[in-house]
Design goal:
Blueprint (H helix, E strand, L loop, with lengths): L1 H6 L6 H17 L7 H23 L5 H4 L14 H27 L6 H18 L3 H19 L6 H32 L4 H10 L5 H18 L7 H8 L2 H26 L14 H22 L5 H22 L2 H28 L15 H4 L1 H15 L5 H15 L3 H27 L12 H16 L5 H8 L1
Helix pairs in contact: 2-3, 2-6, 3-5, 5-6, 5-12, 5-15, 5-20, 6-7, 6-12, 7-8, 7-12, 8-9, 8-10, 8-11, 9-12, 10-12, 11-12, 11-14, 12-14, 12-15, 13-14, 13-19, 14-15, 14-18, 14-19, 15-17, 15-18, 15-20, 15-21, 17-19, 17-20, 18-19
Length: 494
């Protein structure tokens, strides 16, 4: 009976389990041999267990409960929120971690860098992401962002025998430190103006002010800059291509999905806290209209810059890096919509994007050679003949990223575009559609190489059964969620 109480998702939420198992994994690292497989299998088992716990809270909790109904309710000064939205984000983080862990061991072994601490770093990154999603307090948000960021710096340079990886990690650390400085200084100014760190109290305090002090506006601006850097939104996106290209390919898939979604989850909380409107509207975050327009402009520029720049790339990792910048703009549209459908569409889009992006990067990791060759788009010529399974999977991922039916990426864009139109941002949707058409060109260029170009040499690949499992699971994900109606998805969350 006592054990049942402990393992209950309501008594001991998934975020607590993730913290406990992160510490446990460090201890296991210390008492196992370098070649031990225990760390990998333990990590996979734990993530499956945490996903089950989060699914329980999302699917089986009635929507009538306060913790399930509201986004940011301040329960007796709690620094954490425990609602269905937070658990949905937890599922995305853990799924990304699970897919990457399954596939990465073979890649790290191929480049002679399979160290046990990799799994601990992934776990602490996920714990940091959960803190961001659950935060009801600026301090928790900052600690979560820093926990995630520090692990990302280490993961970027994990393949330590590559100069490009070490250089990318150093660039990421220096730029990330500046962004953290902006974020922390902005939070300090917000605290100085409102006297509190809790989201709901900050919102109420801002609305009660007769006039907004300049240092409060500056604090909000600095905080938003710090978060936009983590989202890799324009004009703070320059670090993403270099870092994503430098990092080990499976790690790039993890950072460009789970890390981006976590930053967006944090952006939702900050938007609710520091950008309130004094009018009663049919919205969920009740954002100020001027703030919505600013975020919409940032989203539009992010989509344009990301997709137009991706057109010029010859390296497939760099192309997908700029593509991920564009996808950040699409996801920001859900916040601009400021509605249940908008936030639900953003969560759905994030889930579809996670499956698609990790699947694509896993295919790239399988085809990549030890010397970092075979990474140009032209290197994929004739892949359909030599590796038909990988070619079909890669084509599916490219179609989904481009928003072509019947894959989940199409429905993600459809739902998020619809939410933006319903909110009155038709012009933003037009920009999104135009950039989606631009993106079709560079996604289809990969498919053209695979199916309509010939390769002179024979492509030799090392065996990678686990990575192929990740590829297959990702493909199943983008097919299954294409069959899942958004209205059901929204009703589950709210």
């Amino acid at each position: 009976m006592y054990l049942e109480t402990i393992i209950s998702p309501q008594t001991f939420p998934p975020i607590y389990w993730m913290f406990a198992f992160s510490i446990l994994l460090v201890i296991v690292d210390a008492f196992t041999k370098k070649e031990s497989k225990l760390n990998c299998y333990l990590a996979i088992g734990v993530l499956i267990f945490v996903i089950y716990q989060a699914l329980f809270n999302v699917l089986l909790q009635p929507n009538s409960e306060a913790t399930s109904t509201y986004f940011f309710s301040d329960f007796a000064g709690s620094m954490l929120n425990f609602g269905k939205l937070q658990e949905a984000f937890n599922i995305i983080f853990c799924l990304a971690g699970l897919l990457v862990i399954i596939s990465t061991k073979e890649y790290l072994t191929k480049v002679y860098q399979h160290y046990k601490e990799f799994y601990s770093l992934i776990f602490f990154a996920i714990f940091g992401m959960m803190c961001i999603a659950h935060s009801n307090n600026l301090v928790v948000l900052f600690l979560g962002i820093e926990t995630m960021s520090i692990t990302f710096y280490a993961l970027t340079g994990f393949v330590r025998n590559r100069e490009t990886a070490v250089e990318g990690a150093l660039k990421y650390f220096l730029l990330g430190a500046f962004a953290s400085g902006f974020l922390l200084y902005g939070m300090a100014m917000i605290y100085g103006a409102t006297g509190t760190m809790y989201y709901s109290e900050i919102s109420a305090s801002i609305l009660s002010l007769q006039a907004t002090p300049m240092y409060l506006k500056l604090g909000i601006g600095l905080t938003v800059i710090g978060l936009l850097f983590k989202v890799s939104a324009f004009p703070f996106h320059q670090w993403a291509p270099d870092v994503y290209q430098a990092a080990a390919t499976p790690i790039t898939g993890f950072m460009s999905t789970a890390g981006k979604v976590a930053a967006l989850a944090g952006f939702i909380g900050v938007a609710y806290a520091v950008m309130p409107s004094d009018t009663v509207e049919m919205s969920i975050l009740n954002l100020n209209n001027n703030i919505k327009i600013i975020i919409a402009v940032v989203a539009a520029l992010t989509m344009l810059i990301g997709n137009i720049t991706a057109l010029q790339q010859k390296n497939i990792k760099r192309m997908l890096a700029y593509s991920s910048v564009g996808h950040a703009g699409y996801m920001l549209m859900g916040i601009v919509a400021d509605s249940y459908d908008g936030i639900s569409a953003m969560v759905y889009y994030s889930l579809a994007y996670t499956f698609t992006q990790i699947g694509a990067f896993t295919v790239i990791a399988i085809l990549e050679r030890k010397d970092e060759s075979n990474l140009n788009i032209s290197d994929y010529a004739g892949l359909a003949k030599s590796q038909p399974f990988l070619a079909v999977m890669m084509a599916m991922f490219m179609f989904s990223l481009a928003g072509i039916p019947p894959f989940a990426g199409f429905f993600g864009k459809y739902f998020i575009f619809k939410a933006a139109i319903d909110a009155g941002f038709t012009w933003l949707t037009v920009v999104a559609v135009i950039t989606s058409v631009i993106a079709v060109y560079f996604y289809l260029s990969v498919i053209v190489q695979m199916y309509f170009r010939d390769r002179e040499d024979i492509l030799q690949l090392e065996k990678s059964p686990k990575a192929r499992i990740t590829v297959a699971l990702s493909a199943i994900g983008i097919i299954l969620f294409a069959l899942y109606p958004l209205m059901d998805f929204a009703n589950i969350l709210f």
